[in-house]
Amino acid sequence: MRDVYLTDDLTDATALLDKAIVGCQNDEVDEIRSLGDTLVRWRTEILNHQRTGASNGPTEGLNLCVKKVKRASRGFKCFERYRLRCCSTPVVFTWPRRPSPPRIGDRSPHSNA
């Protein structure tokens, strides 16, 4: 599945995803077959990442920050104070760059100088 997201080519991503689906659906473990069914249901949405480059990562990151505030507060009684605390908490996101696919034949010839 990681390779599906690493490739920039929609055709390659489609082929990789379909291969993963077939592999999961033919597995003897129930949970893996269930994963295959889930991948079939979410196929369009997964491939939309290649079409648009969109991700829900920033939203999930903000949700994580809000949950951290909630855990640290041990439960606010007043929603307004909770809202203010969430809004005033500094949020710094440093999203990693998209990793590049592994290169084949990475060696460079040594010069005989």
Explain what this protein looks like in three dimensions.
The termini are far apart. It is built from six helices and no strands. Helix 2 runs antiparallel to helix 3 and helix 2 (10-25) packs antiparallel against helix 4. 62% of the residues lie in helices and 0% in strands. The protein has two domains: 2-52, no CATH class; 58-88, no CATH class. It has 113 residues and is an all-alpha fold. The longest helix has 17 residues, at 57-73.
The rounded Rg comes to: 21 Å
Order of helices and strands: HHHHHH
Q: Structural class per helix/strand content?
A: mainly alpha
Number of domains: 2
- Indicate the percent of residues in helices: 55-70%
User: What is the 3D shape?
Assistant: elongated
Distance between the termini: 44 Å
Number of helices: 6
Mean pLDDT: 79
Main beta sheet strand tally, sense and closure = none
Count the strands? 0
What share of the residues does DSSP label as strand, in percent?
under 5%
